[in-house]
Amino acid sequence: MTGFTTKEAYLQGFHKIFEAAEKRESPVLKDYLHTQTDRLETLIAQLSQDNFWQAWPEILGIDAKLGIVSELLVFEDFSNEEIIRMVETDYRTYFKELCGYDHSMEPKHSMIFNVL
Q1: Which of 111, 71, 10 is nearest to 2 (CA)?
Q2: d(Cα 92, Cα 101) in Å, to the nearest integer?
Q3: What dihedral do alpha carbons 27, 31, 33, 37 form, nearest 10°?
Q4: Where are the domains of the chain?
Q5: At residue 54, what are phi and psi to the nearest 5 degrees?
Q6: Would the pTM count as exceeding 0.70?
Q7: Read out DSSP for the chain?
Q8: Burial class of residue 13 in the structure, from the number of CB atoms within 10 Å of its CB (0-12 exposed, 13-18 middle, 19+ buried)
Q9: How far is CA 58 from CA 78, 84, 102, 108, 114, in A?
Q10: C-alpha distances in angstroms, 86 versus 17, 38, 54, 79, 100?
């Protein structure tokens, strides 16, 4: 995995999911991804010392949503609507699961698990 220090480099890491969404027949997933990236742009533009603790969990949520979409797009059996439904259902626990926690476990106190 390559590190990134700009928003552009971060979004470039998701370039393949944007391309795959473009190839799907329905615009639903494409619109969903645009909504997420537009919200990310807004949060970043408005980020300040005063709102960091409110914005950061939502930024993490968008990151989790993009990560889940990228994992699910390889499964052609899922419709766009199913992918979005799964993303919206699971994104809050995404980082917890990546770190090896199951749903019943309480994760360590960390910013990474504070997802909105």
Answers
A1: 10
A2: 13
A3: 150
A4: 29-113
A5: -90, -35
A6: yes
A7: -----SHHHHHHTTHHHHHHHHHSS-SHHHHHHHHHHHHHHHHHHH--TTTHHHHHHHHHHHHHHHHHHHHHTT-TTS-HHHHHHHHHHHGGGHHHHHTT--TTSPPPS-GGG---
A8: middle
A9: 26, 17, 22, 19, 9
A10: 16, 21, 24, 11, 19
- Cα–Cα distance for residue pair 86/70, rounded to 1 Å: 12
69-102 residue pLDDT tens: 999 988 889 999 999 999 999 999 999 999 999 8
As given in the structure block, the two tokens for residue 55 are: 């914005």
Joined together, the tokens standing for residue 79 give: 């419709």
